[in-house]
């Protein structure tokens, strides 16, 4: 982690690295963060998979969120990408852009969050960088391995395949609506806490991802919204995807917040930050996929089908297309 100066009251960078982040450098080749680079030794017969994502204050989290939650979210959004590719994660690089108000106590809790998720997901810190900024930003580049030639791409869906999604859709957006917009005045405390937790701390189905290699034809993680992300898969595979609104899995908490109307389902399906896996596979593979999901401690729902054609459509109960104001979140 390279040197940079800071005028805040927190300790110097090298002291912070030695005390807070070097203990996290458990990945092979990290050298305890005592060098300017790390070594990644290829596993025989495997391909290296690399992904990167950044989260930004005011966009992906609130400035007063607990630092440990922010750290875990930053790591998990990257692990979600690896899971959707069928890759087993092993290490990551961390870049922190810190405003002056961030002190040592904040960083201690941040490092604690990383440590907890490193233990949960068997990953280690490889290195990174720290610098000063007007706004808090965290960027992670994560690395994983997949057997050679077995990476699951967006391209590969075929007409006749079924479409699946793990977990539930829209919970994070529901939590954000509670925190930012003041929705859900009559919602129970249990449902309120559940949705807010899903916004602050996504739960990507990492252990399930490896099962997709044998069964899925195409896959990606749901980060910008189920419909818009399936649209990327449809374009890459040159197919049409039909999603049945009634099949989209939504939690009891989200249904209590937004209801069960077509517009409520569309809102859930076009909201971001779910960090679940959407994929296509032959219908004959569903039983094996359901067993793998059970073993991976997640749920799996068949939500539609792949046809010849182009684009993504959301179909209502009367087999009529539901009009969407927008297909999902856009960064620009």
Structure description:
It is a single chain. The protein is α+β, with helices and mostly antiparallel strands and 332 residues long. The chain has 2 domains: 135 residues, PurM-like, N-terminal domain (60s Ribosomal Protein L30, Chain: A); 154 residues, Phosphoribosyl-aminoimidazole Synthetase, Chain A, domain 2, CATH 3.90.650.10. 33% of the residues lie in helices and 23% in strands. It contains 10 helices and 10 strands. Strands 6-8-5-9-7-10 form a 6-stranded mixed β-sheet, with helices on both faces. Helix 3 links the parallel strand 2 and strand 3. Helix 4 packs across helix 5 and helix 5 crosses helix 8. The longest helix is centred in the first third of the chain and has 18 residues. It starts with 12 loop residues before the first helix and ends in a 17-residue tail after the last strand. The N terminus is likely disordered.
Relevant terms:
10 helices; 2 domains; alpha+beta; about 325 residues; 60s Ribosomal Protein L30, Chain: A; 4-stranded mixed β-sheet; disordered N terminus; single chain
Rg calc = 20 Å
Order of helices and strands: HEHEHEEEHHHEHEHHEHEE
Strand content: 15-25%
Global mean pLDDT: 92
Please outline what is shown here:
The chain has helices at 13-21, 67-84, 104-121, 171-181, 189-200, 206-209, 226-237, 252-258, 262-269, 286-295, and strands at residues 46-56, 88-98, 124-132, 137-147, 162-166, 218-222, 240-244, 276-281, 300-307, 311-315. It is α+β, with helices and mostly antiparallel strands and 332 residues long.
């Amino acid at each position: 982690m390279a040197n940079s100066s800071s005028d805040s009251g927190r300790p110097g960078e090298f002291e912070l690295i030695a005390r807070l982040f070097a203990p996290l450098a458990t990945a092979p080749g990290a050298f305890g963060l005592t060098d300017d680079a790390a070594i990644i030794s290829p596993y025989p017969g495997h391909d290296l998979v690399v992904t990167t994502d950044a989260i930004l204050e005011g966009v992906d989290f609130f400035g007063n969120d607990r630092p440990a939650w922010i750290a875990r979210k930053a790591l998990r959004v990257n692990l979600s990408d690896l899971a959707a590719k069928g890759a087993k994660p092993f290490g990551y690089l961390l870049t922190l852009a810190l405003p002056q108000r961030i002190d040592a106590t904040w960083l201690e809790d941040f490092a604690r969050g990383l440590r907890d998720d490193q233990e949960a997901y068997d990953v280690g810190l490889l290195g990174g960088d720290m610098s000063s900024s007007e706004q808090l930003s965290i960027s992670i580049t994560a690395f994983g391995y997949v057997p050679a030639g077995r990476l699951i791409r967006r391209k590969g869906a075929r007409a006749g395949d079924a479409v699946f999604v793990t977990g539930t859709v829209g919970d994070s957006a529901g939590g954000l609506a509670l925190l930012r917009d003041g929705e859900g005045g009559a919602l129970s405390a249990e449902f309120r806490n559940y949705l807010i937790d899903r916004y602050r701390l996504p739960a990507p189905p990492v252990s399930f991802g490896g099962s997709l290699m044998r069964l899925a034809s195409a896959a990606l993680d749901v980060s910008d919204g189920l419909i818009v992300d399936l649209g990327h898969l449809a374009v890459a595979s040159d197919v049409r995807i039909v999603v049945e609104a009634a099949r989209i899995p939504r939690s009891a908490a989200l249904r209590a917040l937004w209801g069960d109307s077509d517009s409520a389902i569309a809102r859930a399906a076009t909201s971001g930050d779910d960090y679940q896996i959407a994929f296509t596979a032959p219908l004959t593979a569903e039983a094996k996929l359901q067993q793998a999901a059970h073993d991976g401690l997640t749920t799996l729902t068949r939500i539609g089908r792949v046809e010849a054609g182009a684009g993504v459509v959301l179909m209502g109960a009367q087999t009529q297309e539901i009009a969407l104001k927008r297909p999902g979140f856009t960064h620009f």
